[in-house]
Amino acid sequence: MKVLVVGGGGREHAIVYKLSQSPQVDKIYCAPGNAGIAALAECVDIKVMEFEKLVSFAKEKEIDLTVVAPDDPLVAGAVDAFKAEGLRVFGPEAKAAIIEGSKAFSKDLMKKYNIPSAAYETFDNADDALKYLENAKMPIVLKADGLALGKGVLICNTLEEAKEGVKTIMLDKQFGSAGNKMVIEEFMTGREVSVLLFCDGTNIKAMSSAQDHKRAKDGDQGLNTGGMGNFSPSPFYTEEIKKFCEEKIFKPTMAAMKAEGRDFVGVLFVGLMLTPDGPKVLEYNARFGDPEAQVVLPRLENDIIDVFNACIDGTLDKVDLKFSDEACVCVILASDGYPVKYEKGFKISGLEKFDGKKDYFCFHAGSKFDSEGNIVTNGGRVLGITAKGRDLKEARAKAYEAVEWVDFENKYFRHDIGKAIDEA
Ligand code: AMP
Ligand code: GLY
């Protein structure tokens, strides 16, 4: 069969890698893809928001299945556009992807259906938000309502910082129209765990857990990013916690979306905080995480085509989802200055060192070919250096070993990805 993957980052590279292992797949296209993905798929010069072009391409090439991976096109209705033309597609429709597209929607959903999460208020103007803050307990969390590349969350320690934050989001519109509305939320403490769920609208199958590192700098300092590295599984996601999450969070979320007429088909990403009062939802995403996909998919033992088909056909209950007992660690090589300002276009050397190495993966997040055919940096996050090991410690050691194999000007990475493993 022929498959089209929409997207062009590390997550899409991991999805393409997994698809390339399926005996059912003859040909993979990726739009727009990147220089790493090009080794496994034919990259097509169409942007993720160009729905008409994507749909025409799928028809012209007689694509059997399209996988829409990034948040923007999902929230804007890419899946709806494919379905309207009778094409087979994996991902939630816009009415379900709103669970990621609007923080106010997801918070209201959780409140209505009693799903544990932080206490919150929603605001559509800065004056009311500023008034509310006068009597609020610090630290406090401000969230732009809409999509902001994982950066629209501000954790404020003082009233002054919080007031400044309201200005940033609602008045200066640093995150654009995502800041037309804002959620102000109670600050929670605890360890974070990400769990990705395959969903068919009714049934869910949870993937193995992962832990992300969202801050740009070592020791969880600096700004929030899309994710600077992660590991899977999380040793803190115990059987007991897993059971609680399945019963009190995952199943109720699926049922809530169904009750609202927004059946969720695709991958639902649940960001959890393991608080002293039990697990609570930090956020939902309507897609595989990036870089969660990079540490979870290499451990998936099923043919991913069978799982995608079961989600689309509503037969996920028949799937026995299996993950290997190994662990996986991913360290992101970024451009220095990410997530604010950074240069790109630098030649990447050493990529060939990954050739033929079992257990090592170099997922490309932001790379492209220059006019001379060299692979150069093309984004804030550049590469996801990933390794599998018998356990987390071995996987981490291997990932940090491989981080040294590649080089480019302004290469930047965190040195403490997986530090929590030592505390387990
Ligand atoms: P989100 O995009 O909503 O997951 O937020 C990004 C990051 O901000 C999370 O991964 C947490 O580290 C942090 N965060 C978000 N909400 C809260 C909260 N209510 N309390 C503490 N930290 C939070
Ligand atoms: N790594 C977090 C995300 O994909 O949103």
Features:
single chain; about 425 residues; alpha+beta; Rossmann fold; Dna Ligase, domain 1; D-amino Acid Aminotransferase, Chain A, domain 1; 4 domains; six-stranded antiparallel sheet; five-stranded parallel sheet; 12 helices; 23 strands; binds adenosine monophosphate; binds glycine
Folded structure, characterized:
- The protein has about 425 residues and is α+β, with helices and mostly antiparallel strands.
- It folds into four domains: about 1-100, Rossmann fold (3-Layer(aba) Sandwich), CATH 3.40.50.20; about 120-185, ATP-grasp fold, A domain (Dna Ligase, domain 1); about 190-320, D-amino Acid Aminotransferase, Chain A, domain 1 (2-Layer Sandwich), CATH 3.30.470.20; about 325-424, Glycinamide Ribonucleotide Synthetase, Chain A, domain 4 (Alpha-Beta Complex), CATH 3.90.600.10.
- The protein is built from twelve helices and 23 strands.
- Strands 12, 15, 18, 19, 22 and 23 form a six-stranded antiparallel sheet that branches. A five-stranded parallel sheet has the order 3-2-1-4-5, with helices on both faces. It has a four-stranded antiparallel sheet with strand order 6-9-7-8, with helices on both faces.
- It starts with a strand and ends in a 12-residue tail after the last strand.
- Adenosine monophosphate binds near residues 185, 187 and 282.
- Adenosine monophosphate (AMP) binds next to strand 7, strand 8, strand 9 and strand 17.
From the coordinates shown, what is the CATH architecture of the largest domain? 2-Layer Sandwich
General shape: globular
Q: Give the strand content.
A: 25-35%
User: Any idea of the CATH class of the largest domain?
Assistant: Alpha Beta
Helix content: 25-40%
**Overall pLDDT confidence:** 96
Counted by DSSP, the helix tally is 12
Characterize the biggest β-sheet: 6 strands, antiparallel
* Ligands: adenosine monophosphate, glycine
- CATH superfamily label of the largest domain: ATP-grasp fold, B domain
Number of domains: 4
Low-confidence stretches: none
Number of strands: 23
The Cα radius of gyration reads 21 Å
Q: Return the structural class.
A: alpha+beta
Oligomer: single chain
Q: If you consult CATH, what is the topology of the largest domain?
A: D-amino Acid Aminotransferase, Chain A, domain 1
Distance between the termini: 43 Å
